[in-house]
Write a structure and sequence with these properties.
The protein is built from two helices and 15 strands. With 167 residues, the protein is mainly beta. The protein has a single domain, classed as Jelly Rolls. It is globular.
Length: 167
Amino acid sequence: MADIKAIKGTNGTTYSIVDRYSKWGGNNLLKNIPKSQSTTGYNFLQLNLTENLVAGETYILQLWDVVLDSNSSGIYIYWGGGSVQIGSGKKPTNGYVTWTLTPTDSNASGSGATNLWLNLYNFTSGHSGQSCTVGKWKLEKGHKATDWSPCWEDIFTISGEELDVNI
């Protein structure tokens, strides 16, 4: 997405944007994600990325309103499919889970790592049909977790010099 410098309102007023992150927090790199998701399966959800992960860069993945079955051993994160694990199993604390992810060169050369998605898996300690629910998700570049914000690509559409807001 191109950097936006200003938005012109329907009343003719131009609103400048000093920094694309100033009001929205860090840019959410997960697009087309449902507002809430529940499953009783092992392969919980595929999260689509706006851009591929870069080896050596640091990312923060946050999940809110998480509820796991008592037999779950945690949520695991795989890059581009089920072969490149980049996040170990975690269980929620007060419904919240966060990971700091730094893909390595070996992760980036792994099978599927060029695919633009992350897979979340609900590991269930040998049990099947265990439930998992997540309310919101956010993946952002950097070392600091910020409040939830939608993905810019889910809100704004740019065609030429026109900016459409998809709210």
